[in-house]
Amino acid sequence: MSRRKLPFKACVKCKLLVDEDVDVCPNCGSREFTDNWEGVVVVLNPSSEAARILGIQKKGMYALKAR
Q1: Other C-beta atoms within 10 Å of 23: how many?
Q2: What does the pLDDT look like over 26-59, one tens digit per residue?
Q3: Rounded to two decimals, what is the model's pTM?
Q4: Cβ neighbour number for residue 46 with a 10 Å cutoff
Q5: Which of 2, 15, 33, 34 to pair with 21, CA 20 to 30 A apart?
């Protein structure tokens, strides 16, 4: 079974998923991205328990692992 690649790259610093054509992370300002990421979590409420545990402070779509 082949895995379908999503058209996103992950910020190495904060793990925010962004479109392939983004040069600067809108979340943390980093310019380091990777295509080597796994898992997705969507944070709608940054004050939720899940966001707190993951260390996420802003709404968005994040990778669970980014290498």
Answers
A1: 7
A2: 999 999 999 999 999 999 999 999 999 999 999 9
A3: 0.88
A4: 13
A5: 2
